[in-house]
């Protein structure tokens, strides 16, 4: 048995999950010809190395069990509890999803994240993907390209977004040769010498840099050099006319210090001796990247007319940059290590201790444990859901959206003619609440008109917009069909005392009610305009009104219109 595995008690879910998986995958081999169990063990080991909790490790062991053997999710739930089953379920759902022919990467990233409301799902998935990429050579060329594409477009960006820079870069570098074999070979040939040359140069700079820090009494935790990853270098070259000379961070120096103050002091000390290049300094400590990355970056002129990039950060920032959100999960591990302090005390390496320290600080900001764990169950897209069309396109809708919202999203005519919907193959009412991952088909009927009633339940602004315009159109048509309700007279006159009274008595004499009366003076012409509105009366009466009003002294002009 693997050594790391033996650190878990025999009755732990980790050990039980291992036995279960071993049994379930018995007599099954991978494409490499090795026993299948190698894969879940490798994934579980990664998850263990990231210090995730026991439920995650157990789920890693079981992640291919439901799909590949006769075991059901129910069975897993019975044996390992709801939590493990929940993670396995998320992983199975992710596998079942097909990416379609013209996938929109950003939408799929969102879909993947929405399948993974419990972050542990995505972390185990990333471990699974890393191991699959490491063993990709055994797949067919078509499969290789497909998986490599997904890795670069979907999983590496997700890892990056979660702050796991190291993993993100690793995934990309593993995919690179499968995606762009010629470019990869070219880069390897071209860059190899450059790398070595730069590496030697960086080695020479290290003691000089240490000396600078000594002057300001800073003892760095470490000064080392890091080579740029191939895939990210390739992308940078594409932006820089493939000229390697324009890339200054081919090999960058990394200084790790103890405090934030020391970061800035280190920067000052470096700039004092090596002039910074204008516009190249970046303060990600004051303004972290959206994924939480913190560091100071500067590019300076170094001896011999060379240019070197230097990154400065604290050890906490460094751990976060390497492991991102996974670092925060290690909390569970601390809890365990307390119970097992004696047997574990000597085993932990320095890095693990660092993590413990970092996590203790992190944990302090949470009132109690439950808050802490809840905070890790990030709902990435609380307000959005992602559903799939029969053609496997991913549609992004507001939470609570219905088949009608979906239909209008596809096309206004599909929305207008929508008569029903099938969700995951089952017929549902059109006000059915959709959920992420649902496969939605709309049933239409030619000539069918949308119902005003739909406004009651639709959620998307697009559906609302169409439905309102349809309703407005209908209102207009109805009004047009109705007989006019009122007649409005406009009477231009010389405003004189008693005029208004004579006008109103014309209506009173004909036994017509006035429903609106207004008199306005036109300041320029000293004319007055009287507006009278009355119910729509017969033509004969209208004629009488006109004759009578015209005969009143002072009347200049009379006009009328029907109003609906
Ligand atoms: Mn797998």
Describe this structure in words.
The chain is an alpha+beta fold and 564 residues long. It has four domains: 5-164, Hypothetical protein af1432, CATH 1.10.3210.10; 182-323, Beta Polymerase, domain 2 (2-Layer Sandwich); 383-479, Ubiquitin-like (UB roll), CATH 3.10.20.30; 486-563, Alpha-Beta Plaits (2-Layer Sandwich), CATH 3.30.70. 52% of the residues lie in helices and 16% in strands. The protein is built from 23 helices and 14 strands. It has helices spanning 13-24, 38-49, 54-62, 65-68, 73-96, 105-115, 119-134, 141-161, 165-179, 181-215, 230-239, 260-273, 315-323, 325-329, 331-339, 341-344, 350-364, 369-376, 403-410, 412-416, 461-481, 499-509, 539-551; strands at residues 222-227, 251-257, 282-283, 296-302, 306-314, 384-388, 394-398, 418-423, 426-428, 440-444, 486-494, 516-522, 527-535, 555-563. The strands form four sheets. The chain has a five-stranded mixed beta sheet with strand order 1-2-5-4-3. The chain has a four-stranded antiparallel beta sheet with strand order 12-13-11-14, covered by helices on one side. Strand 6 (384-388) and strand 7 form a beta hairpin. Helix 1 (13-24) packs parallel to helix 3. The longest helix is centred in the middle third of the chain and has 35 residues, at 181-215. The chain is elongated and about 110 Å long. Residues 329-381 have low confidence and may be disordered. Manganese (II) ion (MN) binds at residues 39, 63-64, 128.
């Amino acid at each position: 048995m693997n050594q790391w595995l033996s650190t878990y008690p025999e009755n732990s879910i980790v050990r039980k999950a291992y036995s279960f998986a071993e049994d379930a995958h018995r007599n099954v081999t991978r494409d490499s010809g090795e026993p299948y169990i190698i894969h879940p063990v490798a994934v579980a080991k990664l998850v263990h190395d990231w210090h995730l909790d026991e439920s995650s490790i157990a789920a890693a062991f079981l992640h291919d069990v439901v799909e590949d053997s006769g075991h059901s999710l129910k069975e897993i739930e019975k044996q390992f509890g709801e939590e493990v089953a929940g993670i396995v379920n998320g992983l199975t759902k992710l596998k079942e999803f097909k990416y379609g022919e013209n996938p929109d990467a950003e939408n799929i990233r969102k879909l993947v994240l929405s399948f993974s409301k419990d972050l542990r799902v995505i972390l185990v998935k990333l471990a699974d993907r890393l191991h699959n990429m490491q063993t990709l050579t055994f797949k067919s060329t078509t499969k290789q390209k497909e998986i490599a594409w997904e890795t670069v477009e979907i999983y590496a960006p997700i890892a990056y977004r979660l702050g796991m820079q190291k993993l993100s870069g690793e995934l990309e570098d593993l995919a690179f040769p499968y995606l762009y074999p010629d470019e990869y070979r070219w880069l390897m040939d071209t860059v190899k010498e450059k790398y070595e040359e730069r590496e030697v140069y960086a080695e020479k700079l290290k003691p000089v840099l240490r000396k600078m820090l000594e002057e300001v009494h800073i003892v760095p935790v470490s000064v080392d050099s890091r080579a740029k990853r191939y895939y990210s270098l390739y992308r940078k070259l594409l932006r820089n006319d493939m000229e390697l000379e324009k890339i200054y961070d081919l090999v960058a120096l990394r200084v790790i210090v103890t405090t934030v103050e020391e970061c800035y002091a280190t920067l000052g000390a470096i700039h004092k001796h090596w002039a910074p290049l204008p516009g190249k300094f970046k303060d990600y400590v004051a303004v972290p990247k959206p994924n939480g990355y913190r560091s100071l970056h500067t590019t300076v002129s170094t001896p011999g007319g060379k240019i070197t990039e230097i990154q400065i950060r604290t050890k906490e920032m460094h751990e976060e940059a390497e492991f991102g959100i996974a670092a925060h999960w290690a909390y569970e591990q601390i809890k365990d290590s307390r119970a097992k302090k004696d047997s574990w005390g000597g085993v932990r390496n320095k890095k693990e201790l660092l993590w413990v320290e970092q996590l203790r600080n992190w944990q302090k900001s949470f009132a109690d444990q439950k808050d802490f764990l809840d905070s890790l169950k990030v709902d990435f897209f609380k307000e959005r859901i992602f559903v799939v069309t029969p053609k496997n396109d991913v549609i992004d809708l507001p939470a609570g959206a219905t088949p009608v919202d979906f239909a209008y999203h596809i096309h206004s005519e599909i929305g207008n003619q929508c008569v029903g919907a099938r969700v995951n193959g089952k017929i549902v009412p059109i006000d059915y609440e959709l959920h992420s991952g649902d496969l939605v088909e709309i049933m239409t009927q030619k000539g069918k008109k949308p119902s005003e009633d739909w406004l009651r339940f639709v959620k998307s602004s697009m559906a609302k917009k169409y439905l309102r315009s349809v309703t407005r159109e209908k209102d207009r048509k109805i009004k047009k069909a109705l007989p006019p309700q009122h007649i409005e007279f406009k009477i231009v006159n010389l405003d004189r005392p008693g005029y208004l009274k004579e006008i109103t008595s014309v209506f009173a004499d004909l036994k017509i009610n006035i429903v609106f009366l207004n008199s306005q003076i036109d300041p320029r012409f000293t004319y007055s305009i009287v507006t009278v509105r009355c119910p729509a009366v017969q033509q004969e009466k209208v004629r009488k009104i006109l004759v009578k009003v015209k005969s009143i002294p002072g009347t200049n002009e009379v006009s009328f219109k029907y109003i609906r």
